[in-house]
Each structure stands twice: as structure tokens, then as C-alpha cells.
Design goal:
Layout: E1 2-6, E2 9-16, E3 19-24, E4 30-37, E5 43-47, E6 67-68, E7 76-77, E8 80-81, E9 83-85, E10 91-93, E11 104-111, E12 114-120, H1 123-128, E13 133-142, E14 145-154, E15 160-162, E16 165-166, E17 169-171, E18 183-186, E19 189-195, E20 201-203, E21 211-212, E22 221-226, E23 230-235, E24 242-246, E25 257-261, E26 269-275, H2 281-284, E27 289-291, E28 296-305
Length: 306
Amino acid sequence: MEIIDLQGHPIRKWTIGASTFLAYPEAGARLMNWHLQMADGSFRDVIHWPENANLDEIAHVRGGNPVLFPFSARTFCDGELGFWKGPDGVRRPMAQHGYARQGKFRLESAHDKGFLAKFIPDEAAREAYPFDYDFSVRYRFEQLAFYVDFELKNLGKEPLPWSAGHHFYFAMPWHEDLGRKDYMLTTGAKKAFHQEPNGKLALVKDFPDPANFGDPAIVDLIRTKLKTNEIRFGPKGGEEDIVIKAGDTSRPDPWMTVVTWTLEDSSPFFCVEPWMGPPNSPEIKNGLHFVSPGKSEVFSVAVSLG
């Protein structure tokens, strides 16, 4: 591991075999980029990071892996966006995707295979989520894979709600002669939803799975009831699949969620996002997890090639 200066910011770099990983642990525990050096000397991005991204505004950069904590996406309280109601019945503010992606972290350790960073809540985060806890993010890198653990420790006296997630920006397409329609996604989901303007989930009766990334029906599609914890995508034929494994059991929680999203047809990325539960979990109650006092819970995700 080495530290490089980028726009006056200390970025950590790991080179492991053909893979290079860049991360900024202190700024949102953000994994920024994963790229490979190919046999012909060229490079291929796996995790997209835009050139000349402003690291002073890293929370707004569309790239890497923003950490979504304590809740993923949009939350509502009685139909009003930007709020949530805790188990104590108190209505509180809640930013979209929570507060970790724009928050500061303390680097607890860094070594030749990864890092561990702990969230430092600011005033806005404490107002929205005023509990006694430790939230940490741990990355471990390998030549053709990485592993990331979210761990929430409840230091208080009441059960602690959460439903965190990842927002992986995968580079796509990664072949010059292919387009999005030439890449296939398989999730094994039995149900899919869209989020309505009031925060409720609307069932999508017919949705493609497997699906190609050129299909507009998969943008902002919320998939649940997964048959396995494995999500696969890549060129038709499956010879270069990217594999995401979410959770530690082959049969995931019934409300574990996979969301696919992109900004525009021309965007050089497509997000495939494993979440602990669907958006607005505090209100709809599905996919909402609780950590008992004195206990901790870990949400583990692995991303690998082939």
C-alpha cells in the first residue's frame, strides 16, 4: 500500500497482481476505483471513477462505492420525503442514502491488503440518528476480488434499526465493440418494485431477469425475494462475469435487495447495488434490521471476476 497525493488529498493505493485499488478511507470510506492491467498492457476499469473528479466534493462524485448508512435511498414519514420515524415514535430528518457517504471516517488501520475505517457522525448525522453506536467499514483486496464488511455495534440500551447498502458504480461497457445491450444481468429475484412518490413500494408484475443493460425497464428497479445471494452480470455467454455475493448465507434474507440504476444512456457506468433491504424500510418495515443492545451485526459483500 502506498499513499499518493491527488488534488492535495491523501489517496491510498493498493497494487495486487494485475489489480489496482484506490480509496479515500477518511472521506466516506470511499472505494474510488478498481482497474486491471490486461495482458496486452492496456487497462480496464471495473469500478468506475471519473477523470478530474472534485475530491473536495467527493460525496457528489458519481463513481466508486458510496456507503449508504443508516438507510439506503429515500425515506419517508407519513408520506413526506426526507424524514423517518424511529421505534420511539419520534419523527426525525433523514438524508437520501443517509450520512456516511458525505461523512468523515477515522482510519483505524491500513495494511498491504486493505483498511478499516470508523464513521465519525457530524451534527446532522447525530440529529437524524441520535443513538450510541460504532459503524465501521472494512475492505480487503485480492488480485481479482474485494470484500467489504459493514459492522454496526449497538453501544446503547435499545434495539438499533438500520438497513445499509452499497452503490457500486461499475464501468460499462468494458469492450469497445459492445454496448449495454450486449451485457446480461441475472439476480434470480422473484419480485420487483418501483418506489412511489409517497415512499410506498409498487409491485412490478413483469420484469426481465435475466435482463440486458440496454433495457430501460431495469433502471431504478428494486428486486427482492432473491433465490440466492449471488448476482452475476457480464457479456452474453458468461465468460467474463462480475459476481456479487451479498450476505453470509446462500439463501439471503427475503427482503435483501438489488437495485440497478444509471444516470443516462451515455453514462460510462451502470450501478448494481446490494442493499440490506428496500428503500424506506423504517416506514414499510420490510428489510429493516435491528441490532440488540451490546451486540453487533455485519453486512458482508464480495465482488469478484469470473
